[in-house]
Amino acid sequence: MKISIITVCYNSEKTISKTIESVLRQTNALFEYLIIDGASKDNTVQIAESYREQFVQKGIAYHIQSESDKGIYDAMNKGIRSATGDIIGILNSDDRYATEDVLSTVIDAFERTQTETIYGNLLYIKNEQPYRYWRSGKFHTFKHGWMPPHPAFFVTKDAYLKYGLYRLDCGVNADYEFMLRLLEKENATTCWVDKTFVYMAAGGTSDNGINSRIQGVVDNKIAWKANGMKPPFYTVYWKKIRKIPQFLTAKFIKMEK
Prior knowledge:
- By secondary structure, this protein is α/β, with parallel strands linked by helices.
- It has 9 helices and 9 strands.
- It has helices at 16-24, 44-49, 52-57, 72-82, 102-113, 157-163, 174-185, 210-226, 235-249; strands at residues 2-9, 30-37, 61-66, 87-90, 95-97, 117-126, 129-134, 153-156, 190-201.
- Strands 1, 2, 3, 4, 5, 6, 7, 8 and 9 form a 9-stranded mixed β-sheet that branches.
- α7 (174-185) runs parallel beside α8 (210-226).
- The longest helix is centred in the C-terminal third of the chain and has 17 residues, at 210-226.
- It is globular and about 50 Å long.
- The two termini are 28 Å apart.
C-alpha cells in the first residue's frame, strides 16, 4: 500500500524543516509527500524546495504547490484531491513524526486490519520537552468526550471519496467534524495502534488563546449539528476532563531524538 502525506503550510519557515526531515527519515514504506502552501510571503517554499534532491535520491515523489486558498482545510482538500496513495495522512507544518517507522507501522496496520481508518497516539511538546501525552485508547463514543488526535489519524483515499472531505463551514474544528462524521455517524471501521505517531508543537491553530477555545466550543456544536446529531450537555465537559491526565502522564514519556 502507498501513503500520501500532506503538509499544509503558510509562512512556516521557522518550523517546516523539522517536519520535512521527519518525513524524509521514514523507512520501509512506499509514500509520496505533498506540500500545499498558501502563497507564503516568507521563505517556506524555498526551504521546501531545498529538500527536493534528497527526496529524488530516495525515489520518493515530492510535490510542492503554492497558491492562495480559503484556509487550512481548503488546502487539505486540495492535497487530498491530488493524492495518489491508498492511505492519506495529514502532518502539520510545525509537527513531526516521532520515529522513523511511523509510516511502515501504519501500512502494516491497514494491511492487517483492512480498516478504513487507523489512529495512534500524540505527544505535545513545549521547548522540546514532553508537555501533554494523548494516548488515544480504543474507539469510544464522541459523546463521552473521546476523539483521536487528528495528526495521528490516517484515512484511506476510498473513505474520503465515500464520506467526503473537510467542511469549510465548521471553523477551526473541521478536523473534529470530519472524525465525528466518519467514526460516530457513518461508523467507518477503525483501529487504534498504541504507538506515538506524532510530536505536535503545543499551541496550534485550535489550541491558541481563550478566544480560540471559546470559538472551538461553538464550532464543536456546529460539527454535531452539521451531522444531524446533538451531543449530551456533558460532552464538552468530558472533553476537558479527559485532558487532565494527559498533562500528568507526559512527565513519564521519553522522547525519541
